Amino acid sequence: MGSARDVHAWDRTIRLWDAYFAVAWAATAVLVLTAAHPGWPVRVAAAGLLVPLVPWYGVVGRPLLTDEDPADGRRALWYLGVTLALFLVAAVLVGETRLMTFALVPQCFMALRRRGALVAVTVINLVPVVGWALLWRPDVTDLLGNALFAVVALVSSVVLGSWILRIIEQSGERAELIAELDASRFENSRLSAAHGALAERERMAREIHDTLAQGFTSLLMLVQAVEAELDHDLPQARRHLRLMDETARQNLAEARALVAGGAPADLDGATLPDALRRLAARHEATLDVTGPVRALPAGPQVVALRACQEALANARKHAGSSAAVGISLAYADEALTVSVRDDGPGFDPAAVHGGYGLAGLRARAAEVGGAASVHSAPGDGTLVTVRLPVPTSVRSETP
Q: Of 108, 139, 204, 334, which sits 20 to 30 A from 146 (CA to CA)?
């Protein structure tokens, strides 16, 4: 609808120029025909030279002035050249013809660039007076009056025309700026959407890595344990089968929660210590809770749970099923701290490059303003610690 309004506004503007041209032409023709000097044959001839200006304007000039960039082609020079040829001859014959300059000067600034417009305006204002003076040899008083009028008209035309051109140029510059701003806004929207999609993919990757992938890893380890125990330890094999069933059901619940965008399955209707107890039982780890347990926002609790899942999966993967693993959950006034320690062979954290688990764990902690650290050394086990800030609104609250 905006473009339709713009076209309609321009149509009304060019109609005003049409009316302006018609009035100026009609007034000039009347003055020429009713002038006291020279004789009527010359006046009729001058008026006859003005007649072709009307169809010439309608057929060539008007479409030229409605172009978006009329100063671009040769049409402007061709149109104004023919127009000036007819006008200048008539103006030399009859001085009153110079009234037509009020219609022609604006067209010069509309159809030509600045330098060409100034040259054309100078010709329109000065050449008729010079030619008229040379042809009719007027007295000094008439000559000075006409010359003064021509100079004033020239100065006025240059000043007003230059001012109008500057306004048009500024309007064009503003239009370009608006177009650039629109393009920048579109690009920002596109980049924001792309960034949001990337962030969502990263979040989903972390969720899948910390839930489904870890659950499948646990299932594989349990399958291997059952295969080794079937021939000599059926009770232990049955226990591991029950753990496999529980792990599979837990993975299914996590998958459903992930699709629904809800809280992790372990935290659904349960406290963080209860969720960690179930997690510790599945991984045959111990849990130690210290400090006053209290309700916390979902963000820190989810990060704490996911951090434990990642650390436990790494402990079982790298330290082995025989390693002792312990979870420590500490509630303090300003922070919630969760640690996972194993007595496995350990490793050199500085020698680890790449990998998604530890990087994802640190990214999760950073999202809620916390920090994650890994302390390990060959032969000295591994300690993963995540410290998360507690919002001021829930500090010092009792459960």
A: 108
* Dihedral over alpha carbons 225, 228, 229, 231 (to 10 degrees): 160
pLDDT along the chain (399 residues), means of 10: 43 78 95 92 95 94 75 78 95 93 90 88 94 91 90 90 80 83 83 69 68 74 81 83 81 69 66 87 87 85 84 78 87 90 84 66 84 87 90 60
**DSSP secondary structure of 29-93:** HHHHHT-SSS-HHHHHHHHHHHTTHHHHIIIIIHHHHHSSSTTSSSHHHHHHHHHHHHHHHHHHH
Residues 6+ apart with CB under 8 A from 240: 222, 225, 226, 229
Q: Which of 73, 92, 181 lies closest to 136 in space, CA to CA? A: 92
SS3 301: helix
* Cβ atoms of residues 338 and 307 within 8 Å: yes
Angstrom CA distances, 141 to 137, 148, 225, 310, stand at: 11, 11, 122, 104
**Nearest Cα residue to 113 out of 71, 154, 65, 75:** 71
> Distance (Å, rounded) from C-alpha 203 to C-alpha 247?
23
Measured in degrees and rounded to the nearest 5, phi and psi for residue 352 equal -90, 125
Q: Is the bond preceding residue 41 a cis peptide, omega within 30 degrees?
A: no
Q: Encoding tokens for residue 397?
A: 């609250």
pTM score:
0.47
